[in-house]
Amino acid sequence: MWVTKWVDYSTKYGLGYLLSDQSAGVFFNDSTKIVAEDKGSCFYYYERKAISSSEKQDVLTKYQFNEFPKELQKKVTLLEHFKSYLQSSTAQQSASHKHAEMELAEDMKSLKPPAGSVYVKKWMRTRHAIMFRLSNKIVQVNFQDHTEILLNSDNRLVTYVNKKGERSIMPLSQALDSNNQEMTKRLKYTKDILTHMLNNNGPSSSA
Predict the structure, then answer these.
(1) Tell me: the pLDDT tens digits for 142-191?
(2) pLDDT in tens, 64-79
(3) Between 54 and 123, the higher pLDDT residue
(4) Which long-range contacts (C-beta less than 8 Å, at least 24 apart) are formed by 163-172?
(5) Of 52, 76, 112, 173, which has the highest C-beta tally within 10 A?
(6) How many Å apart are CA 97 and CA 163, to the nearest integer?
């Protein structure tokens, strides 16, 4: 599961995105999140709540589209607007979308996680890239030159998409020692901005 399209409207509302299973979500500026399956009748709403004096976590509430609190009306409307826009051809599209989705489609059918469990937990835009940290422990970085890196912390695998749209998957240890300087340079940059993201409590930042 990864982000295939997005729109940065954080000057007013937040970041809207589509995932590889066509779920649509929004990371709002107040750090709440909303996500819904493509044809689903319900949506999932996440709020940051304190679980101790020093720790917060996302708390999930599930609602039906035909029955939800009035105070969420604006956010639901924004979700629908973002989804409609992102399903058009004008939104930004990740380099791996066309190349990886067909290859992974069959695998995803059997590996698809429970509905509502995957969403963007944090994101950051820098001068050179945009980074998404997903709830399934995937870290995705889309660079302005259309290269892309996906890090899977569970199995320590790196997926790299080069400027030609060619995709390769390898263990992280192998990727770090690779002779592919284009990839290793982007891996180092990914590590740097991931460290910055984890040390920054805000939803997004410029570096």
Answers:
(1) 999 989 999 988 888 999 999 988 888 999 888 888 888 889 999 999 88
(2) 999 999 999 999 999 9
(3) 123
(4) 165/95, 165/96, 165/98, 165/99, 166/99, 167/96, 167/99, 167/100, 167/103
(5) 76
(6) 13
pLDDT value at position 50?
80
Instruction: Tell the residue number behind the tokens 């979308």, with chain if given.
Output: 97
Contact 136, 121 (CB under 8 A): no
Question: What sections of 41-145 are H helices per DSSP?
Answer: 73-86, 96-111
Instruction: Please give the angle made by the CA atoms of 92, 162 and 157, to the nearest 5 degrees.
Output: 100
Backbone dihedral region for residue 178 (phi beyond 0: left; psi -120 to 50: alpha; all else: beta): beta
Look up tokens 């890196």; give the residue: 149
CB 26 within 8 A of CB 75: yes
